[in-house]
Amino acid sequence: MGSKITRLSEDKFDEYSELTYLSRKEIIRAYDKFKSCDPIEFSNNLDVRFAREKIMMLPELRVNPFAKRICDVFSSEKDGKISFEDFLDMMSCFCERASRDVKVDYAFRIFDLNDDDYISPEDMKLIISKLISPHELPEEHLQCIIGNILIESDMDNDGQLSFAEFQHLISKSPDFFK
Q1: Considering the entire predicted model, what is its pTM?
Q2: What end-to-end distance do the CA atoms of the chain give, in Å?
Q3: Residue 81 in 3-state DSSP?
Q4: Which CATH number covers residue 52?
Q5: How many Å apart are CA 120 and CA 104, to the nearest integer?
Q6: At what angle do helices 10-19 and 24-36 cross, to 10 degrees?
């Protein structure tokens, strides 16, 4: 197989290597993946912003129940469109070398479905519903799960999880970081 031509300058590689947790090889892979969303529209234009629907067609996101929300969180313009740099941020966050703090920060933002800086019982209900079919989990069991999460993690008893409470909850879940 021949090598792919990447139209990134050395300065851009240096900048992206400095600002992300990605290696040069991973940056090239991200570039190729981003370009594959719409090669004609991309045409080596790093300023192009793809609609989230194009990004969500990538195999890594296609079956992810949070794909739309992930795209919304990583959209720098908050319009659901993803630039190459937004895409690099996304890839960087999900790579092995990203710090725990970065992973927790983005997980919180993804799970804070209404962007109010808290994970509310309604957010939790929607999150659980995305992971488990509603027919498989009766409402009373869903409420019991949410209640147990709050009993375990809601330190200030305000009925929702702040970032600090979420961070504490996640620190007890080593599998989260794998």
Answers
A1: 0.90
A2: 32
A3: strand
A4: 1.10.238.10
A5: 17
A6: 100
